[in-house]
UDP-glucose 6-dehydrogenase
Amino acid sequence: MRIAMIGTGYVGLVSGVCFSDFGHDVICVDKDPTKIARLQSGEVPIFEPGLEDLMARNVAAGRLTFTTDLKAAVDGAGAVFIAVGTPTRRGDGHADLTYVMAAAEEIGAALTDYAVVVTKSTVPVGTNRKVAEAVGRQAKVEFDVASNPEFLREGAAIDDFMRPDRVVVGVESEPARKVMADIYKPLFLREFPVVYTGLETAEMIKYAANAFLATKITFINEIAALCERVGADVKAVSKGMGLDGRIGAKFLHAGPGYGGSCFPKDTKALARIGQEVGVPMQITETVIKVNEEIKRRMIDKIFEALDGAPAGKTVAVLGVTFKPNTDDMRDAPSLTIVPALVGAGAKVRVTDPEGQREGEALLPGVKWVENAYQAGQGADLVVLLTEWNEFRALDLGKLARKMNAARMVDLRNVYDRDEVLAAGFVGFEGVGR
Ligand code: UDX
């Protein structure tokens, strides 16, 4: 099958590369000529483990190409995926559909034969019908639309794509369903579950899933705050809760609040949809609020570890990306926490295996260093903010010896108090313990 993938952002690029690996002929399209030129020369613009190799392999096999020419890419394609951005619109919290709608019109004008126009971008309920209208305004041939939301986790995207918990396909005609089944045949043959639904339901599944996961994280974060007050250990609470099969152990790690490109944006969009149709999403609205409070609470915790006097102290921050194995800084807790420290007059030294490129502009007033030990040199506090592997097995004794006052705030509960103190630290704070 020939597939056109419109948009080479995170979802578009990963999906395009993976579809080509299924044996399909994939043409990835982007308006940005610099980006396309980089992709054509084999450069991957995002950090995602395994993506570069997989891309190279499929380019070499002649199944994967990149272009700025949408018209040529759509010509003869059996399916055209829309994977352009849907950022939160300034002012009203709505998902901004400008790019999706513009792509739909352009695709409509470019269609030369029956094709299925598939939305992969996360879009509010009802958008696929609008996409159908937009394509239809321009199209001179038959077409169908489908909704195929993406559940990839950054840092594990290839694996998530190749071994999904499920594939959700919103289709409303037999030919469209057949095209989608052909595209995902390699997965369906291996019996990964597929959920066929109508358009609105598919759109809803994505928002409901992400809001639920954000709620689960926020719930345990709130429990963590309570644990601190009553002398309980949230790590053990998570374990004890998670062993109940109805709850499940995943997404119960207390931390500095969720971030990233999906949870903050999708929870806001869901809340907005609810307000619009007069069914307020009260739980989701609270989750959004509590997540902000959690981040503020982390700042209090760090200030307390500095005896309430951060001015002039040196703080080493380990990790600034919103989670490990990505260079993504979108809505990362570091964007709230680090400026608070800088604003309070602390000298902040930052290290992150991939975060510097994006982070430099976003975190003014900090000093970037190579590793945790350089960050810790003469510092009064080390804050573990993102649990990259290289911060999980620190030589704590070495780190403590380099510091001025060896204190640690571990916002990801990687370390246990006893081991940190035994290594020569004089102070330790985790989350919810
Ligand atoms: C998420 C969803 O998992 C994915 O299905 C969806 O399609 C896109 O959004 P992603 O944003 O890449 O993926 O990261 P994820 O691993 O889900 O983590 C999201 C945030 O929650 C991160 O800030 C992470 O640190 C935080 N988190 C996650 C916790 O604080 N505790 C947890 O137990 C799990």
